Amino acid sequence: MKFMPPIFVFVARDFILSCVVLLTATAAPAQRMVFAHYMLTNQDYQGDSDPTQELKIASYEREIREAQSAGIDGFALNAGGWLHQTYYIRYAAQMFEAALRLHSGFHLMFSADMCCGNGVDDVEDMMRRFAGNPRYAEVYFRRQGRFVLTTFAGDKLGVSAWRQIRDDLALGTHPSTQAEPTALNPVSEAPSNAPLPIFLVPAFFWGGELPSRAAIQQGVDTWRPLIDGAFYWGIAGVPGSGSESDQLPSSDSYAAVLHSGNKLFMAPVCLQFWGANANRYYEYSGAAGMRAMWMDAIHVSHPEWVEVITWNDFIEGTYVSPIDDPNKYPGANFLDSTGVPRDTLGYFHSHAAATALLRFFIEWYKSGVEPAIKQDTIYYFYRTQPNSFDAGTPPVTRKYGPVADDLYITANLIAPADLSIRTGDYSRIIHLQRGSTDVHTPLRAGKAPSLTLTRKGAVLGSAVATDPVQASPKYNDFYYSSGVLTGRKDKHP
Predict the structure, then answer these.
(1) 3-class secondary structure, 316
(2) What would the pLDDT profile of 294-323 be if each residue is shown by its tens digit?
(3) Are strands 398-400 and 280-282 parallel, antiparallel or unpaired?
(4) pTM for the full model?
(5) Which regions of the chain carry the CATH code 2.60.40?
(6) What CA–CA distances, in Å, run from 462 to 7, 354, 418, 439, 484?
């Protein structure tokens, strides 16, 4: 009998440990999240002229609602300046106020843009001023109880500088002292220097834009003690092409290296990349390139988070916001570097089709199951000038991928259907299969393309695109124009 208590304790301990192991093994995986990169200097619908700032706040509320309707969980706020360009503080305050007022569960976090002058003081101040602010901390995105900070570049700042940023924020050292009177009241004074733990997920360019696995491994090994994960800024490529310009192998290598070291991976998704101020264009073939990036995330790299690059970088053509034309909103954005006058309406085109299509892929990514298609929908994309024409401004001499004069179609159909297309003097009927597919057809100069969707002789819907295809435009315009044709539900089989 004297041996019974030890035996009982041992059995009970084994039982408890078994329960812990079982609960750990069967626990649901962490929720997958999707963010969109938001350029604070490119507000879509409203300039910064209202002294009350209420119009800007309302504009940001509109954009948050648009993003949430597509399934986006939050914005990564690109701050390319801070203490020496204090309008960034004002814009950030307006955005945080909008998210707080909506109270819709939309998250905000900073992407410290380190390309052009930000340093240790700037990064520490932006985190303290908002993540450390009692009013706005509730909408600032956290992981494991820590405030998430991502970046654009920044590795050149050096390991010691980023160690200082982490330590200063965690310990409250190197206090911020600058006030900003033009910002909203909650952030107009010098911020609190209370301890602030961060979860660091930088976008460092280890090995360049299309890095090898070895370069990524070297970067992670160097930065391992400081980072909690990493974001691959993988947009300068031809996704899914299998060519040397394909960025998917680099994305997969990022995932493999980070996950093997128990670090978080945030994968990129992009609609299109034309660096209108960088003299290069990468062909994404309408939404086919974006699909390739989503499929890689869903089936191969399995990132914890995805960041859509971008919501509103109009200079680079990556934007997925449904704005009709940013030049219609004077003073609302900085577009001068394209070389195109601000009063040239119609130059920047709506990417509303991308916004609408994102919901399908985001639902697939978050659930791991392809969504059921409940309504026939055609998403179309095209460039508004022939590939062979060169107006000279902005310059575009470096083109990558299968650049062609094509109209790109993504069809989400509940059953097979026929799509009649007319572009210029060319017409064609495409027989489309059930499900979600990408096709393309020749594009001709002339009036805006028109499309009609039919099934068994019944018209499901029709659409006329917004923009004509100009044979000789005044400016090079390689931004996609896009649109959506939605079938009528009463015509479904």
Answers:
(1) coil
(2) 999 999 999 999 999 999 998 889 999 998
(3) parallel
(4) 0.92
(5) 377-491
(6) 77, 19, 12, 18, 10
Q: Which of 295, 315, 246 is nearest to 479 (CA)?
A: 315
CA–CA gap between residue 131 and residue 134 (Å, rounded): 8
Q: What is the pLDDT of residues 228-287, one digit of tens each?
A: 999 999 999 999 999 999 999 999 999 999 999 999 999 999 999 998 778 899 999 999
Q: Which uninterrupted H or E stretch holds 252?
A: helix 248-260
Please give the structure tokens belonging to residue 246.
């394909």
- Dist CA 88 CA 101 (whole Å): 20
Overall average pLDDT of the 461-481 stretch:
95
- What residues does CATH 3.20.20.80 cover in the chain? 30-367
- C-alpha 408/C-alpha 294 separation (Å) is 18
Q: How is residue 180 written in tokens?
A: 């900003």
CATH architecture of 377-491: Sandwich (2.60)
| CATH (one of 1.10.10.60, 3.90.660.10, 1.10.760.10, 3.20.20.80) for 30-367 | 3.20.20.80
Which residues lie across from 463 on neighbouring strands? 451
Q: Per-residue pLDDT averaged across 33-52, rounded? A: 91
